[in-house]
Amino acid sequence: MIAKIHSGQGFAGLVDYANDIKNKNAEIIASEDVDLTSNKSITASFSLQAKSRPSLKNFVGHISLSFAPEDAPKLSNRLMANIAKEYLQRMGIVNTQYIISRHHDKPHPHVHIAYNRVNNDGNAIFGDQNFRKSARITQALTSEYNLTFGKGKKKVNRDRLKGKDVIKYRIYDIVKGGLEVCIDWKELKNGLIAEGISLDFTYKTDGRIKGVVFTCDDISFGGYRIDRTMTYKNIDRRLQTNLEEYNRLIASMEEKRQRNISSHSENQPHEKSSVSENKTADMSAGISGTAGASGGGSLIVEKIAATAMEMTVQPHIAPVLGVGGGSDNDRGWRDEDEEKDRSYVPYRRRR
Question: Count of domains in the chain?
């Protein structure tokens, strides 16, 4: 079981994605205090409650929970809903609105949870964006419900580790999460520092980088000693891939934004100037002004995210802040919706 966590500022795009019956064969398997008549009514329910806490910038919560294909036969809608609700309870996401929607477009079972980060009493929900907390909870639930762990390090029971192995696997989990979202070495290094982990390079006699070393609590490991994916070359390759994907998504989002502006200008030429200026300002604010919007949380799990759907349907909504949760795996069954489905894709702010 793997969790990925995001937060943002617009419910419409998320609800349309989570409850996409046509493309995702989605079905809502559980909900709380929302009008399920239509996607618009669900959005209206969320939005009305969010207004009771106008000071909370990122009031939209989104969590995807993915399971191994091997578990599909026993994962009924009822069981998946119970697991998802137990996850929410342990994460402290309580006394608030939510929908839990199951998608049937991938070999692995998975659900998307859309929830209000403004609870029923008008208070903000905090602690729901914690990567390490989420990882511990997903591992516990995987064990308690007798679900399948992935190969390699995901099979290791963290609670039974001792000595240096505790540090080794902590580094592994956090670096793995960082490689989901970081686009360069500087961002990864700064994120690790925020988690109490330092990253240093070793060099060849000619000055070229030879390898990478991670240190936590005065205990150091070469990247290759942690995992084969943690060598300098493999990390550098992954960061480059992330950067290329980021650049492609930014270009695609900008192209769609320009088309929206042109279309709006043709339909309402007398508003051309103000519409263009407002959308340009919103995009600029989303790309350069939301760093640290999570309130000083760990940089390694911060990312600036937005959906192509929201920018198309609601181009006035600024890009949302996304936070990665859970952990990666080597089986290839992690939730790939965000990576392959361009109707809902995150993009990052370049630091």
Answer: 1
